[in-house]
Amino acid sequence: MDLGQVFTFALATAFCLGGAWLCISRWSRARHLLDTPTSRIRSAAQGYVELVGMLRELAVPQPVAPLTGEPCLWWRYCIEEYRSNGKRSSWSVLERGTSEAWLRLADATGECLIDPRGAEVHPAFRKVWTGSLRHPRGIAPSGWLGLLSSGKRYRYTEERLHEGEPLYAIGDFRTTGGGRHGLDLSSAKREVIRQWKGDYAGLLQRFDSNADGQLDEHEWNRVRLAARLEAEDRHRESSAAPEQHQMARPSEALPFVLSSHGEEVITRRFYWQAAGGAVMCLAGAVWLAMQLGITAW
């Protein structure tokens, strides 16, 4: 087997395995979305949850999209440069970025803050255009420099989420405050002691009665009692705080999706991508079988 055959064999194998991964991952995402029922914010269980509501303004002033300068709640952009090298030409990415500003989702029962970091975001607004400047909001060059740089050498893509748009969200849902959670006194007490041990000198100053530089059993009993009282005080304070709902990326390998489109649109898109992956896998398998047949021959 020569070097060219080895490369072709490796390429066919990668094509087959890549298609299989795309098919399985996209199919799994679609099934997770369909199998998770939509919840109301106020009554949603803790954990993996699907929500539907409207986007509301959270920060004043609103974030500004970096390419157009338009106010929005979330943005994603990409700047590409057109490069030509002989017979080959293509768009090459120069710069890209994604907003990390939190979002506020509201339904008829309440509001939920969403940390979009790590989310797969599908906004309804997407704008693509071209220009002659590295950045579309920059100062246009003048004179000979302007003539030399004329032409649409750059392509810009900007996606945005706006206030008042519908939003589909599925991710890890947590609620704090409002007395919603009971007190696990043992674990809360251990957490307080762990924090106090981080400042051991301060712990000795508070509880080392005989000043011998260590805590005996009697002194440790005082530490445990003080930690229990501290844990109870913290629980009372958190219970008195107003209830706050938040959604973020799940710790497990579960989809975290934010979309201006409904569940049906997103799942259909995932199914089409899964079908494309299956075709890619099949084509790679056929190609691989042909290469193996040629090699055997």
UniProtKB/TrEMBL annotation:
One matching Pfam family: GIDE
Regions that span the bilayer: 6-24, 270-290
UniProt main location, coarse: membrane
Alphabetically ordered keywords of this record: Membrane, Metal-binding, Transferase, Transmembrane, Transmembrane helix, Ubl conjugation pathway, Zinc, Zinc-finger
Record membrane topology: Multi-pass membrane protein
Species of provenance: Stutzerimonas decontaminans
PROSITE patterns assigned to the protein according to its UniProt record, in alphabetical order: EF_HAND_1 (PS00018)
Protein name: RING-type E3 ubiquitin transferase
Catalytic activity from the UniProt record: S-ubiquitinyl-[E2 ubiquitin-conjugating enzyme]-L-cysteine + [acceptor protein]-L-lysine = [E2 ubiquitin-conjugating enzyme]-L-cysteine + N(6)-ubiquitinyl-[acceptor protein]-L-lysine
Sequence ranges assigned to domain E3 Ubiquitin ligase MUL1-like in this UniProt record: 83-179
EC number in record: 2.3.2.27
InterPro entries membership: EF_Hand_1_Ca_BS (IPR018247), MUL1-like (IPR022170)
Location relative to the cell: Membrane
